[in-house]
């Protein structure tokens, strides 16, 4: 299991290749990479803050829950912090399981958790100023299915 909270960029393709290389014990590997997007125009960057140590511990706990619940062979969670310009990868999740349903559901579970509950604070920096980002009702609804 790999949990990385990092300021620097990552190569999702290289991470996925390393994660899936040589696996013969699983039937499915699922990955997702989140990108900083400009939904309404004018976004310059997303600034992400976290508490070192606390964030890794919280993600590690939810990752262990996912591993146990879906009987995962392995998983990767990478999440960046700092100032991220539009178009940059912000996070990645990869799961490996015997069957695709388990791999997909575990990946979705991890993504939903990271979006709404992981201890990150996100600020959108736009041409007209900056504001903190709150979880949306849709984000909360996504969590309720788990």
TrEMBL record:
Matching InterPro entries: MoaE_sf, Mopterin_biosynth_MoaE
Domain of life of the organism encoding this protein: Bacteria
Swiss-Prot/TrEMBL keywords: Molybdenum cofactor biosynthesis
The reaction(s) this protein catalyses: 2 [molybdopterin-synthase sulfur-carrier protein]-C-terminal-Gly-aminoethanethioate + cyclic pyranopterin phosphate + H2O = molybdopterin + 2 [molybdopterin-synthase sulfur-carrier protein]-C-terminal Gly-Gly + 2 H(+)
Function: Converts molybdopterin precursor Z into molybdopterin. This requires the incorporation of two sulfur atoms into precursor Z to generate a dithiolene group. The sulfur is provided by MoaD.
Subunit structure: Heterotetramer of 2 MoaD subunits and 2 MoaE subunits. Also stable as homodimer. The enzyme changes between these two forms during catalysis.
Protein name: Molybdopterin synthase catalytic subunit
Organism in which the protein naturally occurs: Limimaricola litoreus
């Amino acid at each position: 299991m790999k949990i990385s909270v990092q300021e620097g960029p990552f190569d999702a393709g290289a991470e996925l290749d390393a994660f899936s290389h040589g696996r013969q014990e699983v039937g499915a590997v699922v990955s997702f990479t989140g990108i900083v997007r400009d939904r309404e125009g004018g976004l310059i960057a997303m600034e992400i803050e976290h508490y070192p140590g606390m964030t890794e511990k919280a993600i590690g706990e939810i990752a262990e829950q996912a591993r146990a619940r879906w009987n995962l062979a392995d998983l990767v969670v990478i999440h960046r912090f700092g100032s991220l310009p539009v178009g940059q990868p912000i996070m990645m999740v990869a799961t490996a399981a015997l069957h695709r349903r388990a791999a997909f559901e575990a990946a979705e579970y991890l993504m939903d958790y990271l979006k709404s509950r992981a201890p990150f604070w996100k600020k959108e920096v736009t041409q007209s100023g900056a504001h903190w980002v709150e979880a949306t009702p849709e984000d909360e609804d996504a969590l309720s299915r788990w």
